[in-house]
Specification:
The complex is a heterodimer.
Chain A (H helix, E strand, L loop, with lengths): L1 E12 L38 H13 L3 E2 L2 E2 L2 E4 L9 E4 L6 E10 L2 E14 L3 E4 L10 E4 L6 E7 L6 H18 L11 E11 L9 E6 L2 H20 L7 E6 L4 E7 L9 E2 L6 E2 L2 H10 L4 H12 L3 H8 L2 H14 L2 H18 L13 H13 L4 H14 L3 H7 L8 H14 L1 H8 L5 H12 L6 H13 L2
Parallel strand pairs in A: 12-13
Antiparallel strand pairs in A: 1-10, 1-11, 2-6, 3-16, 4-5, 4-15, 6-7, 7-10, 8-9, 11-12, 13-14
Helix pairs in contact in A: 2-3, 5-6, 7-8, 7-9, 9-10, 12-14, 12-15, 13-14, 14-15
Chain B lengths: L7 H9 L5 H19 L2 E4 L1 H17 L11 E4 L26 H9 L3 E5 L33 H8 L5 E6 L5 H7 L2 E4 L19 E6 L2 H11 L29 E5 L9 H16 L3 E5 L7 H16 L18 H12 L2 H14 L5 H24 L2 E5 L15 H5 L6 H6 L3 E8 L5 E7 L5 H14 L2 H4 L9
Parallel strand pairs in B: 2-3, 2-4, 7-8, 7-9
Antiparallel strand pairs in B: 1-3, 4-6, 5-6, 5-10, 9-11, 10-11
Helix pairs in contact in B: 2-3, 5-6, 7-15, 9-11, 9-12
The chains are: A alpha+beta, B alpha/beta.
Chain lengths: 482, 491
């Protein structure tokens, strides 16, 4: 058994309207090479001009991750040749990153883990290559789409504080939640606007020196991240067990085969010849500007969870589940505002609403939750007044999700009002007693459990509308005289 | 006098009075190009059709009295590393021989907006790397004063064209002396503005922290006019300086009485031809006669300028020229079996010797393990040089030096010896490192009848002051009319 040491490099596309150095659109999915101009194609003579919004978003991301923001920062050129890199250098940040020394906290099996953020820097996205074969060197031809080239990107680098593949996934999920709260990125892993590379090494427990590490790329989903790292743990463990060294290399995760494949060794490491980009002036940020941006940040997940516990008396678990999505948290809070009873609302949201969202495959980051907080509040009021039973309420909620109708409408249309009228209920009870002599005898002879069966029969006869509590009372009166 | 031989401010009067049209003027220049340029080789392409259309449009503007600026109707020729929409921008390289720019450089857009026809594109050292225009992969340009001599470089095309009257006004670019040295060699006026005074947007980058576009003209007044037309903040260039552009022409007649002219002793030492030194000191005496005070100053770190320049400029160039990879534009090697071979063959075939030499130098200077020793050290020297100039300008208003160590040398003379060729930048590169403005103006001929240049250097944003001193000297020496002109055999 070995101690697993993982550090992540996360790339996040910022959702500015235009690119970082020019005015081209950043919309996803446009026809190839239609969102380009002389600047982002790197035509001779063109120059970059910093999009202030990209700077603002990068600083806000840094602030949300608890980072210190640099008052003086600059851009550097990272030089290398690749067809998706029009200038043959990526404008990035080398020795003076915009943000440093942050941290992300998240729960692992009920315990709080803290992963330090070493740095967050701002850079530009490259274009996208598609190869006719497996990779660029083995292809008859490759195609390049420069629409993506020049979209602002932040790179978030963690310290090697992650101790398992599962932790790596949980960290990424929490990071994504935080970034989604700030609104600086849409964090869509399937579209590549959030992606990460992982550095992983193993060492015997108690050993102070780090083991040789490998870097794993192409981790396009939370699942891929965890699986690829689990594979690496197995692979490296087997090597160490056999007394063989782990080679430092860069590896590609192959999702189909479920293995990592070595792409290049340490010896192939490139010299990027970083130097300050003379086309851009250094950026100075005043404390005032940084504080203005900080004040514009919304309440972040951890703050919101703490407030939910404090203000609504929710258990920690509830608070964390509800705040894992800002849309769900907002829905919860708006419902409580109208209905009160936070724990009741929490139960409904965490149980029924999240279940329906999952079952109906609704992407709540992209589309609204199909019912409104007003709608849920109205439904909960009907349940609480006893107009409908709890179980009927759940059915009504599902119908609300699927039809968009209000709870009252559905209850009325389907005649779902709970029967609480004593006369009506007595008639139903008498009918059930007449039809079920056996269970009736059981009850009378002291087997009180049989009363549940009879209540069920009444509910069935009423098509679920009978008020079960009243039915129970009437049955007891009739059969036990109490 | 033929129209093509006149200066812009003279042509302005004739155009405004309706005595000539822009079309006539443009045609006169086109005819002159046809007659003379085969012998000179200044032009890489001539925009005959477009320039005439632009001249017609300018004539309409002048007739209707609508938006007539100082350069409306006066053709400008530009160095072929400055982008003109729809025209070739070759940088005199095989790499871009067939490249057509799809956009205008900011300077070109400003000239077009004023109604100045863009006459054609002028030869240069390949990617502006050289001091003789001999590294041009497309054409040999000759010095109009002696066809066996180089016009200087890298803006040899603009200098030769202005000297040969095939251009009224020209734009060059200056990274280490590329406007001033050819201006000196060809007996014209060349001004390198303060870094950031003129937008670099559309200038194909050689060394981004040193490059500046500037005017190359027949006299000082024209330089002021052309600079005014192109200067000023550009939102497309982050390094361009915000703020209003002064009225340079208004400075020209203020004289030099009371100004202090510094003579940096390091610029008159070893390696400077005696005839050049003598001519420059004679010019300084003229200024002294006009009331200027002359004082010796020292720029102790200037001796390291050339070494720092030849570290910084190639380093930036090695990165700037990465984009020429055969993927999107320009030369693309045929039959490359994979992408790495495509990159290698394209660059092997597309770049000339000097460009490759500088890319290798620069790549080395930026490499891991050498960065601190070379590039970073050069940046420190640069700071010291800037401070030297700041101190000097606390004592004096402008500095006067020779522009180049020698007069124009013979074609092929220095080709084999790059180190000797690099000496051409000795006196000009310091201004680029410091980002300060500098102008070269003709100050006489040597015994063989070859022009010598006087360089004046000023503090940042001191172009007005430089033009003022230059105009005073020009006026006192009888102006352009009294200056000898090159005698072209073809005439």
């Amino acid at each position: 058994m070995y101690e697993v040491i993982i550090g992540l490099e996360v790339h996040v596309e910022l959702s500015t309207d235009s690119k970082i150095w020019c005015g081209c659109s950043t919309d996803f999915g446009a026809e190839a090479n239609t969102q380009v101009c002389p600047v982002c194609l790197g035509l001779p003579g063109t120059l970059p001009v910093l999009n202030e919004k990209a700077l603002e978003y990068a600083v806000k991301a840094g602030l949300a991750l608890g980072c210190e923001i640099a008052h003086f920062t600059k851009f550097d050129r990272k030089n290398y040749f690749y067809p998706d890199l029009p200038k043959a250098y990526q404008i990035s940040q080398y020795d003076l990153p915009l943000c440093r020394n942050g941290a992300v906290e998240f729960e692992v099996n009920g315990e709080t883990r803290r992963v330090r953020i070493a740095r967050v820097h701002l850079e530009e996205e490259a274009g996208k290559t598609v190869h006719s074969g497996d990779n660029i060197m083995g292809s008859e031809y490759s195609l390049v789409d420069y629409n993506r080239g020049g979209i602002p990107l932040i790179e978030i680098v963690t310290e090697p504080d992650i101790r398992s593949p599962e932790e790596a996934r949980l960290f990424m999920e929490k990071l994504r939640t935080i970034l989604l709260y700030t609104g600086v990125s849409d964090c869509k892993m399937q579209e590549g606007s959030l992606r990460c590379d992982a550095n992983i090494s193993l060492r015997p427990f108690g050993e102070a020196k780090l083991g040789e590490r490998t870097e794993v790329k192409n981790l396009n989903s939370f699942r891929a991240l965890q699986r690829a790292l689990e594979y690496e743990v197995r692979r490296q463990s087997a090597l160490l067990d056999a007394g063989e060294p782990v080679e430092r290399d860069t590896r590609h995760w192959n999702e189909q085969q479920g293995v990592t494949i070595s792409m290049r060794s340490k010896e192939d490491a490139q010299d990027y010849r970083y130097f300050p980009d003379p086309d851009l002036v250094p950026v100075t940020l005043t404390a005032e500007q940084i504080e203005t941006w900080r004040s514009e940040l919304p309440e972040l997940p951890d703050q919101k969870a703490a407030r939910f516990m404090e203000q609504f008396g929710l258990p920690k678990y509830d608070a964390q589940v509800l705040t894992a999505s800002k849309e769900v948290a907002a829905f919860f809070e708006a419902t409580v505002e109208r209905f009160g009873e936070p724990k009741t609302v929490s139960n409904w949201v965490m149980g029924e609403i999240l279940r329906l969202i999952k079952e109906m495959e609704i992407d709540i980051e992209q589309e609204p939750i199909p019912i409104s907080p007003e709608g849920l509040a109205e439904l909960l009021a009907l349940v609480s007044k006893g107009t409908i039973s709890n179980n009927v309420g759940k059915e009504v909620l599902e119908t609300m999700f699927k039809t968009g109708k209000s709870a009252a409408e559905i209850v009325k249309e389907q005649g779902l009002e709970q029967i609480s009228d004593t006369g009506e209920l007595e008639a139903l009870v008498d009918q059930v007693i007449a039809e079920n002599p056996g269970p009736v005898e059981d009850v009378k002879s002291g087997k009180e459990k049989a009363i549940g069966f009879l209540v069920g029969q009444v509910m069935k006869a009423s098509r679920g509308k009978a008020n079960p509590q009243r039915v129970n009372e009437i049955l007891r009166q009739r059969l036990l005289g109490s | 006098m033929e129209l093509h031989a006149l200066r812009a401010h003279q042509l302005r009067e004739l155009l405004d009075k309706g005595e000539i049209s822009s079309v006539e003027l443009t045609k006169s220049l086109l005819a002159r190009i046809e007659a003379v340029d085969p012998a000179i080789g200044a032009y890489l392409s001539v925009r005959e059709k477009e320039a005439l259309q632009e001249a017609e449009a300018a004539d309409r503007r002048i007739r209707e009295g609508r938006d007539v600026g100082p350069l409306t109707g006066i053709p400008v020729s530009v160095k072929d590393n400055i982008s003109v929409d729809g025209s070739p921008t070759t940088c005199a390289s095989k790499m871009l021989e067939h490249y057509i720019s799809p956009y205008d450089a900011t300077v070109v857009a400003r000239l077009k907006a004023q109604g100045a026809p863009i006459l054609g594109k002028l030869n240069l050292d390949e990617f502006a790397m050289g001091s003789s225009t001999e590294t041009s992969a497309l054409k040999l340009t000759r010095n109009p004063w002696d066809l066996e001599r180089v016009p200087g470089g890298s803006s040899g095309g603009p200098a030769a064209a202005v000297a040969a009257d095939t251009a009224v006004l020209a734009l060059g670019s200056d990274t280490g002396g590329s406007i001033r040295q050819p201006a000196a060699f060809c007996g014209i006026v060349g001004l390198k503005p303060t870094y950031g005074r003129v937008s670099r947007y559309g200038l194909v980058a050689f060394a981004s922290s040193l490059d500046q576009i500037g005017p190359m003209t027949k006299d000082v007044r024209d330089a002021a006019l052309l600079l005014a037309a192109i200067a000023g903040h550009d939102p497309l260039d982050s390094t361009s300086i915000p703020g209003e552009v002064p009225d340079f022409a208004a400075e020209l007649d203020k004289g030099v009485d009371g100004l202090v002219i510094g003579l940096p002793k390091e610029f008159f030492g070893e390696g400077i031809a005696p005839e050049v030194k003598d001519a420059v000191l004679a010019a300084v005496r003229v200024l002294e006669g006009l009331g200027a005070k002359v004082q010796e100053v020292s720029l102790p770190h200037a001796r390291y300028a050339l070494a720092a320049y030849h570290m910084i400029a190639p380093a930036e160039a090695s990165s700037n020229l990465g984009r020429f990879d055969g993927v999107r534009f320009g030369h693309r090697a045929k039959e490359a079996e994979d992408v790495v071979t495509l990159f290698e063959k394209t660059r092997q075939e597309g770049f000339g010797l000097e460009v490759k030499r500088r890319i290798m130098l620069g790549t080395f200077a930026l490499s891991a393990g050498y960065y601190d020793q070379y590039y970073l050290k050069a940046l420190k020297v640069r700071t010291l040089i800037r401070q030297d100039f700041e101190k000097a300008f606390q004592q004096c208003d402008v500095l006067a030096t020779p522009t180049a160590p020698t007069v124009a040398f013979r074609i092929g003379e220095k080709w084999e010896n790059p180190l000797e060729m690099y000496q051409s930048d000795l006196l000009t590169a310091p201004a680029n490192l410091a980002g300060i403005p500098a102008i070269s103006i003709p100050c006489g001929l040597n015994g063989e009848g070859l022009p010598i240049g006087l360089q004046l250097l000023g503090p940042a944003l001191g172009e007005g002051l430089l033009l003022r001193v230059a105009a005073a000297y020009e006026g006192a020496t009888g102006g352009v009319e009294s200056r000898p002109k090159p005698r072209l055999e073809v005439e």
